[in-house]
Every structure is written in structure tokens, then in C-alpha cells.
Amino acid sequence: MVKHHRKRSGTRTAAIAVCCLLAWAPAAMGQGPESPNSPASKAPDKPRPAPSASPSRESPTADTASSLLGNLDLVGLWQDNTWFGRPFSWPVLLLAIVLGWVAGRIAAAVLRRVVASLKTRNRPIRTLVFRHLIGPAKLALLALGLTVGLAQLKMSDPLQTFGMRTLALLYSFAAFWYVFNLVSVVEVVLLRITARTESALDDQLVPLIRKSLRVVLVVMAAVFVVDSVFKRDVVALVAAIGVLGLPLGFAAKDILGNVFGAVIILFNRPFRIGERIIYAGYDGTIEEIGFLSIRVRTLTGNLVTIPNSKIASEAVENVGRRKSIRRTMNVTITYDTPRDKIEQAVQILRDVLEEEGIREPIHATIDGNEFPPRVFFNDYNPDSLNLFLIYWYAPPVWWDYVEHAQRLNLRIFEEFEKAGIEFAFPTQTLYLASDPKRELALKMLAKDL
Predict the structure, then answer these.
(1) Given this model, what pLDDT does residue 44 score?
(2) What is the pLDDT of residue 11?
């Protein structure tokens, strides 16, 4: 398997070099006519075969190829670098290419040994750094051999320009190839960071970051090559792409807004999967956090999908992160309750809150502050006397809180029943003249009348 992979890797590197040469061959045709003072425009030292005067009936592709060969002056290249004109030029070129290829194979073997050593020592990041250098190093050394070989040849200006740009393309491709591969190192680092969190969003966002970085690198490489190697106007090209991208930008506005909302949720972490939130009237548990939306399972069992762009720009109440559950309770008693019974009712509530089995979870200490329960006779309602009770239950486990509230309610009911204290409820009272409790009040009212 290893040998097969090495052969395939070497073949791939050679194929990349050949493809680069073929891809950039048409660039020489864009040079235009040569200047009268250029060496290539002067009369050659040796006679050149005259082109045929007969009209060509070949396809446009054949015309392009023949025009390219004419501009590059390949016949002159051969005649100027023959055995008698410049001896050993072609053998040196061939030898330099072979040595560059061999140097690439040796460098690849050395790098593979380094990778194996780092892998046994459990160095995943360094392993990736050296492993991804193998292919680009082979291509760069092959281009170096080609550079040394071409330096021995006598070439015309168009051909020399074409060769220099082709070599620049090979070196640029090798560099960007290595940087492109290093994105996987960034991915490994991000995965290490996200492994420490419980949120699944950041785990899903890592592949998106990896793909985005690679797309950006490809665009940067294309712009660099077009500007530095091909000598074309990048500003006009970028402007054209920008004009074409406006309709797509408007169409994808909502999608991009949701993606950026996912990024905001990732970094702000307002909630996690499994936490209960309240948003826009929806009260439920987070089931899924995606790139475009989150899904909330409401308390009624319904599944609600909320776009990330909205939930990232509006207030969200995270019930799952509360440190305690606060309960406010109004215990109402009738207006005919005597004053001593009112004081007794307040004391009953305070004593029940301090009973064993009830007091433990409602004497919470949160962030270093104590929150004991409070009981007061605080208000006169239209149809009752109001006893206000408040306490904080911690830890905020909902079903434990409900069970505790039930136990407390039963104890209050029992103690009020023993003390003969009546709970009030909305009623209309009809006073009778024979009622001994109101006899004095009715006599006074009659005297006034």
C-alpha cells in the first residue's frame, strides 16, 4: 500500500507540473507583437525556415497552436542550442530535471520518516505539518531542477518570458498547495478546543470554517497568480465578479444572516442543547443547534424552528441556567380574622418554613449571598388579608421543586386548620341583623341614620 501510494504521489506531482505548463502556454499569445528593438525581432544568426504561404484550413484550435509555436520560436530554440552552437545545453536541461525529480523523491522519503517518528510520539499537529509538505516539496524541487536546466538555454524574449512565468506558476502552486493543506492543522486545533465544550454547534462549525478557509485561499491564489504571473488587471476582474455577485448576495442575504447568527451563538453561548429557554412566547428545551436555525421542543410537545438571525438579535431567557427557583406566594385569610390570629398565621408560615425536610433547599447560598425565606402581612386585598411569602429553591431541579412546594402547601393547610384560621376566597358577604358578631356595628349604623 505504501509503495503504491508513493508511485501515485510521484505521478500526481509530475502531472501537476505538466498541467501547469500546458495551462499557461496560451499566456505567451497574449504578449502581442514584439518591439522592434527586442533581440527576437532582429535577424537571426542562422536562417529560419520560411513559413508556408498556403492558406491554412485547420480548425481554430490548430491555428492557435501554430500561432503559439510561431511566437515562441521553438525552431530557433533548437537551432541556437544544438551540439555545435551551445554544447551540453539539452543534456544539462534533462539532467537538471532528473536531479530535481530525484531530490523530490529523497525529500519525500526523509519527510515520511519524520512523519512516522512524530506519529509514534503522538504529535498530531507536527505530523500533519510535515506530512502535508511532501507533495509541495516534490513539486518545488522539480521546478528548481527545471529552473537550473532552463538557465543553460539560449531563448528568445517571448520564450524566456513564458518560461519565467511558468516557473513562477509552479513555485506559487507549490506554496499555496502547502498552505491549503495546512488548513487541516487549523481544523485539528479547533476540534481540540471544541472538544472541551458541551455544545454541538461548535463541532458542526469546524467543517464550515475549514471549507471557508480553503475557498479563501483558492481565491487568493488565483488573484495572486493572475496579477503577479499572468500580469492581468485584477481590479477589473474583481469588479466584474462583484457585479455578478450582487444578485446572489441579495438572494442569499437571509442564509448568510442565519450563518452569522450561528457564529454569534457559538461565541456568545447564550444556551446549549438540553437547556430550557423562553423566546417570543415559546417555552421549551433546545434539541438542535444548526447553521441556519435552532429547534426547540416546547413544554406542550411541539417542535418549533427559530432562525438563527432572529434569535441572535433578540432577547432570550435561559431558564436552564438559573441558579435557583424563586417562588412568591400569597396566603389570604378572611377580614374577620382577629389581630392575634393574623400574627399567629404569620408565625405559622415562618415555623413551617424552618421545619426539617422543608428548610434545607430554601436556605440557599448563591454567589456567596444567603437568601432566607421571608414572610410578611403586606397588604389588604378587596376581599382578604394578604400574607406574602417568598423563598428561593436550590438547586433548581424542577420536579424536586414541585414536590417540595406540595409538601409545604400541605403543612400550611394542616397548621391553619389546627389554629382555626380560615383561608379567604372571593365572596360577597350578606350581614344579618341577628348576627352576634356584627350586632354592635349595625346598632351604630342605625343610630347614625
Answers:
(1) 44
(2) 47
Tell which residue, 257, 262, 139, has the closest CA to residue 205. Answer: 262
Q: Is 6 exposed, middle or buried (0-12, 13-18, 19+ CB in 10 A)?
A: middle
Q: Convert 63-124 into a string of H (helix), E (strand) and C (coil).
A: HHHHHHHHHHCHHHHHHHCCCCCCCCHHHHHHHHHHHHHHHHHHHHHHHHHHHHHHHHCCCH
Rounded alpha-carbon distances, angstroms, from residue 73 to 137, 148, 173: 32, 21, 27
- Answer yes or no: are the C-beta atoms of 259 and 299 closer than 8 Å: no
H/E segment holding residue 52: none
What pLDDT does 75 receive? 60
Determine contact, residues 320/275, Cβ cutoff 8 Å: yes
| Contact (CB, 8 A) for 174 and 143 | yes
Contact 241, 214 (CB under 8 A): no
Q: Nearest to residue 157, comparing CAs of 43, 31, 13?
A: 31
Q: How many CB atoms lie within 10 A of CB 40?
A: 17
Tens digits of per-residue pLDDT, 90-127?
777 888 889 989 998 999 999 999 989 988 888 888 88
The single-letter DSSP state of residue 227 is: I
Whole-number average pLDDT of the chain = 76
The reply to whether 258-321 and 325-419 are identical in fold is no
Joined together, the cell numbers standing for residue 342 give: 393574623
Give 258-321's CATH code, choosing from 2.60.40.10, 3.40.50.620, 2.60.120.560, 2.30.30.60. 2.30.30.60
Q: Cα–Cα distances in Å, from 402 out to 241, 389, 399? A: 61, 16, 5
328-348 pLDDT per residue, tens:
999 999 998 999 999 999 999
Distance between CA atoms of residues 410 and 430, nearest Å: 31
In this structure, which topology does domain 325-419 adopt according to CATH? Alpha-Beta Plaits (3.30.70)
Is the pLDDT reported for residue 276 higher than 70? yes
- Domains of the chain: which residue ranges? 1-25+81-181, 258-321, 325-419
Helices 89-120 and 124-131, axial angle in degrees (round to 10): 170
- Cβ burial 416-425 (10 Å sphere, 16+ → b, else e): beeeebeebe
Query: Does residue 119 contact residue 28 with C-beta atoms inside 8 Å?
Result: no
Stated as kind and residue range, the H or E segment containing 146 is helix 134-150
State the Cα–Cα distance between residues 292 and 128, nearest whole angstrom. Answer: 32
- Strand-pair category, 282-289 with 293-298: antiparallel
Amino acid at 324: S
